[in-house]
Write a structure and sequence with these properties.
alpha/beta; about 260 residues; globular; Rossmann fold; about 20% strand; 8 strands; about 30% helix
């Protein structure tokens, strides 16, 4: 029987695999590995900054990011409204300091209970982003930090368009616009950009030199990408504060006044 390329492979016994819908990314889908690593690297960057902290991962999806942070945090609560994602995460990731809850991002959570709230690749999905940011600010304990990310519309959408064709996205942002949005609710906002590094940067340069035409002419497109895509790692991306209009995604580090 042929393997479904868009369903998770090799899940632990009793854990129902999830299928790609375009709403969230997933691990254990080789064809999706680029997007999975692109999201995971941000979770890993945040994990290094939440050691010993109480963390809420809002709109946690499959749960891989919550698990990544739970390796170092005091506790992590992953929250998602989707029943399939919630059930999968609950069954797959079972660290003692990690729990999962079903809930809506607009209302879920205990005020003042978290040292860090993480809200990645979701603000582009919500109808009232300011209200959501205000709610997330209210979940923070004194000195707490919100980490929120979103894709760069200049990279995601066709040239000149205000939005990509992703049906799950309601609003996509440029760097300055995203920074202003976060600053309407938070007193201190730093926006970083996610960029290709290492072999993805080499691949990016190769594409600029005509690699698409070369691999098509040689007839090696499938063979090349069947190896290249699963080999992409978190280290093939980098976060930095300059050149934000050229970034793939933005990550805002948001702090209220004490």
């Amino acid at each position: 029987m042929a393997t479904n390329l868009y369903v998770q492979q090799h899940q632990p016994p009793g854990v129902p695999p999830l299928q790609l819908t375009g709403e969230r990314t997933l691990p254990d889908v080789p064809a999706e590995n680029y997007w999975f690593r692109r999201h995971l690297v941000v979770y890993e960057w945040i994990a290094a900054r939440v050691v010993g902290a109480r963390v809420m991962d809002m709109a946690c999806g499959e749960g891989y990011g919550s698990e990544s942070m739970a390796r170092v945090a005091a506790s992590v609560v992953g929250v998602d409204a989707n029943p399939d994602a919630y059930e999968h995460a609950r069954l797959r990731y079972t660290r003692q300091n990690l729990t999962f809850e079903r809930g809506m991002v607009e209302i879920h959570g205990e005020p003042g209970a978290y040292d860090a709230v993480v809200f990645l690749q979701t603000i582009e999905h919500v109808h009232d982003p300011v209200a959501v940011l205000e709610h997330l600010r209210g979940l923070l304990a004194p000195g707490g930090v919100l980490y929120v990310s979103t894709p760069n519309v200049l990279k995601l959408a066709p040239a000149g368009a205000t939005k990509s064709g992703n049906p799950w996205h309601l609003k996509e942002y440029r760097a300055a616009e995203f920074g202003r949005l976060c600053a309407t609710v938070f007193d201190h906002v730093q926006v970083l950009g996610l960029f290709h590094a290492r072999k993805l940067r080499v691949h990016e340069l190769a594409l600029a030199c005509g690699w698409d035409a070369v691999h098509a002419r040689l007839g090696v497109t499938t063979a090349f990408y069947d190896r290249f895509t699963p080999a992409i790692a978190s280290s093939d991306f980098a976060l930095r504060a300059r050149g934000l209009d050229r970034a793939l995604d933005f990550l805002a580090v948001c702090r209220p006044d004490a």
